[in-house]
Amino acid sequence: MKDSVQIKANLVAGEHDALIEFYGRFSRLFVNKLLLKLCEGVIPDYEPSLALFQSNVSENAEVARKVAIRIEKDKHPLMWDFYKDLPYGSRTMVIINLMNHYATLADADPRLLEKTYWSGRTDPIHKDTKEPAVHLVEKTASSSGEPAGRGPSGADEFIGKGRVDVPATVTEAQPGGVVDPVTLISTGL
Questions:
Q1: Where are the domains of the chain?
Q2: Which regions of the chain are under pLDDT 70?
Q3: Cα-Cα-Cα-Cα dihedral of 125, 170, 172, 160, to 10°?
Q4: What is d(CA 123, CA 71) in angstroms, rounded to the nearest whole number?
């Protein structure tokens, strides 16, 4: 059994606009790698749906771009499994619709592509962390060797080597005992 599959498809204007723009934005030398890295990173969080099986492409539609994408089993295991589980006659259409959907997500949030490319996941920091941000700030201050100050009920707090003024009136916590870090910022109004 082969460990890679090459998908050759025609991208149609009006149907695959996000994918056409994605291919236009990045160099052809690495655009497929970026696209597959994006797909691998977001497929667990944005699972495919049956809507991908629908296509509005007519037979005389204008082809805006031709693409050839190679999915390798060892490099792209999630996309490989998804592709191999698709019914034979719909594989190319569904995988291109899925990639167009993910290109739309990356267009809406440019940080998504950055995060998935460098980390492999969309938001690994928040998924692993169970602690509120205030406790992380206190840990950062105490691990730097400087005192953490008097905290939310006091006048100042150290973060690393910088100093953050905290108003003395901020003492109430949200339900669950978590202090909203936004309330610690003084706007001067």
A1: 4-122, 133-184
A2: 1, 120-184, 186, 188-189
A3: 30
A4: 24
